[in-house]
Amino acid sequence: MEKFDYSVEVVLNTLSIGQVSRCILQELYKAGHEPSIFIISNNFDLSAENEVDDDFVKWCKSGVAKANHSYSRKNPCLKIWHINGGQASVSDNQSLFSFYELDSPTDSEINICRNQSNVIFSSQDSCDLFAKHDVNTKYVPLGFDSDYFKPTNKTFFLDDRVVFGLAGKFEKRKNHILTIDAWVEAFGNNKDYYLSCALNNPFLTPEDHAKIKQRYSNYWNVQLNDRFPKNEQYNDYLNSIDIMLCPSGGEGWGLPEFQATALGAHAVVLNCSAYKGWANQDNAVLFEPLEEKIPANDGKFFVDGGPFNQGKLYTFAKENLISACEEAVARHKS
After folding, report:
1. Residues 119, 166 share a domain
2. Is residue 148 a part of any domain in this protein?
3. Dihedral pair phi/psi, residue 295, rounded to 5°
4. Residue 249 placed within a domain
5. What's the CATH number where 75 sits?
6. Cα Rg, the chain, nearest whole Å
7. Each residue of 175-230: pLDDT tens digit?
8. Same-domain check for residues 198 and 326
9. Using an 8 Å Cβ cutoff, are 17 and 80 in contact?
10. What CA–CA distance (Å, rounded) separates 226 from 269?
């Protein structure tokens, strides 16, 4: 990779956007680059990593230390962040690596994206949607995080139960309630099946999480795990899964589902949004969303009337998810 002067602006945290930022920084480090590094909100948190390379951390901190006195607005910048916030820039030539989850970009979102040199998405649907509004979009597929996620030889259960997984921040957009409701209708309290969920959302209150657990407290084969603080623990979780459920009605990345499938789990995938970039008939059972979408408004993360995050989401019929799960079980056992 040819060296040149440029900047990167990222956030390093335990969320997907922080994990993507860390992966990209690691590749730049391995390539011997020395960009100016700006940390959004001074959020430099690598606590989820198992064993952090000390030299990589020193490289990051060196890039941060020199950023303010070494950057130039004439040099290009790669910013990894939300569209809302992409308008703030340290360069006149900024590429924004972001994500979009709905179907109706607002005037503010379109204008911010038009003022970027490029907007990079890992969803071809998002690229096509914004391209219709004269945004210069680039598609970059998801990459497997091989530094922190690896197959294990561990035995997680002593019986032959089929383990389903459901992961991601708990929210309406991801159809989590609909998914668990459908799953317990088909497999609840059946000893041959188990649903292991990793749905912790740091933006919800402990009371919110308690209500979710209470909703399924009568099903002993539904496990709502607490947050996994380390990627090593999350790696064990992903490796324990036989079939990963991928039901989101609007996905910009879908990293947990992608990582689990890359580790060997079969997948049950709602055929929409970013999932379509990697899910196919060989690694997944695809099922179709309903034609009529539902409003994204959930009163928390998507609120009607604002300048950002307006639109609708895909959803599905419970019987279609159940049929897809049954087909995935048959494939898993064959």
Report:
1. no
2. no
3. -60, 140
4. yes
5. 3.40.50
6. 21
7. 999 999 999 999 999 999 999 999 988 889 999 999 999 999 999 999 999 889 88
8. yes
9. yes
10. 24
Report the run of H or E that residue 318 belongs to, with start and end: helix 318-333
pLDDT at position 2 is: 56
- What the block records as the tokens of 301 is 């993360």
Burial of 72 (0-12, 13-18, 19+ CB in 10 A): middle
One domain, residues 132 and 166: no
Q: How confident is the model over 108-158, as pLDDT tens digits?
A: 999 999 999 999 999 999 999 999 999 999 999 999 999 889 999 899 999
Q: Are 270 and 176 in contact (CB under 8 A)?
A: no
Query: Which CATH number covers residue 306?
Result: 3.40.50.2000
Q: Would you give the DSSP letter of residue 102?
A: S
Distance CA 292, CA 318 (A): 15
Q: Give the separation between CA 308 and CA 322, rounded to whole angstroms.
A: 34
Residue in 53, 43, 52, 55 with CA at minimum distance from that of residue 14: 43
Q: Which domain holds residue 315?
A: 162-333
Structural tokens at position 115: 């003022």
Give me 186's structure tokens.
């088909």
Q: Give the total residue count for the chain.
A: 334
- Asked if 126 and 222 sit in the same domain, the reply is no
pTM to 2 decimal places: 0.94
Total domains, the chain: 2
Q: Do 247 and 325 lie in a common domain?
A: yes
pLDDT in tens, 230-277: 889 999 999 999 999 999 999 999 999 999 999 999 999 999 999 999
Q: Is residue 145 part of a domain?
A: no
Is the same domain home to 195 and 235?
A: yes
Query: Got the DSSP string for 196-244?
Result: EEE---TTS-HHHHHHHHHHTTT-TTEEEPPP--SHHHHHHHHHT-SEE
Q: How far apart, in whole angstroms, are the C-alpha atoms of residue 77 and residue 9?
A: 7
